[in-house]
Amino acid sequence: MDDMPHSDATAETEMRRLIAIMARLRDPERGCPWDVVQDFASIAPYTIEEAYEVADAIEKGDMAELRAELGDLLFQAVFHARMAEEAGHFDFADVARGIADKMVRRHPHVFGDENRDRTPEEQTVAWEAIKAAERAGKPAETGVLAGVATGLPALTRAVKLQNRAARVGFDWPNTGEVIDKITEETAELVEARDSGSSDKLVEEYGDLMFVMANLGRHLGVDPEAALRAANAKFTRRFEAIEAALAAEGRKPADATLAEMDALWDAAKARGL
């Protein structure tokens, strides 16, 4: 690893500047009143939001926006690290060192003596095995499902939980059985709807969503990505409806459902 540069001078300079800016923003006497009163819990939603905005820039293929959004996400990491440093827990250097050490540890085929001749799929298996060994060394995280973050988007977390369970054999053997389970859960959802119990309705709807996520996993489809794509398609087609009505001097509220359905079908026929 001696031939690897440990830092880029420009990147290091800008990183130091950003850390200094964060320290000034948090200064009780000279800083920003808003930044000073924040804590981990209050900043966490912004951190999640910035990660989604990074994903959005990637999906749009907008590199200028991606650069800006990565900066916003980096600032979130610096913000959390600064608050931790103030409380005496750790600082940004500890964060950077920790992730660097982890990447070296989890890539023994790159930084160690293991064979690098692996397919991406084989490397994924090896990565998960290393992670499992790391979890086994933590007394509080010995269970199969331990360590799957509760703050993940629900569909993403569902797939991660299902993948963990599948590694120890708790999984449907084929897609057909998952589809059968969807039929079963759909019937139970209808029963819950008819029962008038809102709690049961929520429970059964959740069960159906969980099995749908499992179907995506069996089909090799990321349910979170698939739903994002469906959201984007819905947005394109509905905006086409708005544009068509606007050309007539109308808004969706002025149109009938049948009219909007016809415009939807027209947008669909145009490939939107």
From TrEMBL:
It comes from the Bacteria. Keywords: Hydrolase. GO terms for molecular function: ATP diphosphatase activity. CDD domains: NTP-PPase_MazG_Cterm, NTP-PPase_MazG_Nterm. The keyword Hydrolase applies. Its EC number is 3.6.1.8. Residues 38-111 form the NTP pyrophosphohydrolase MazG-like domain. InterPro entries: MazG-like_dom, NTP-PPase_MazG-like_C, NTP-PPase_MazG-like_N, NTP_PyrPHydrolase_MazG, PRib-ATP_PPHydrolase-like. GO terms for biological process: dATP catabolic process; dGTP catabolic process; dTTP catabolic process; dUTP catabolic process; response to stress; TTP catabolic process; UTP catabolic process. It catalyses: ATP + H2O = AMP + diphosphate + H(+). Belongs to the nucleoside triphosphate pyrophosphohydrolase family. This is Nucleoside triphosphate pyrophosphohydrolase. It comes from Amaricoccus macauensis.
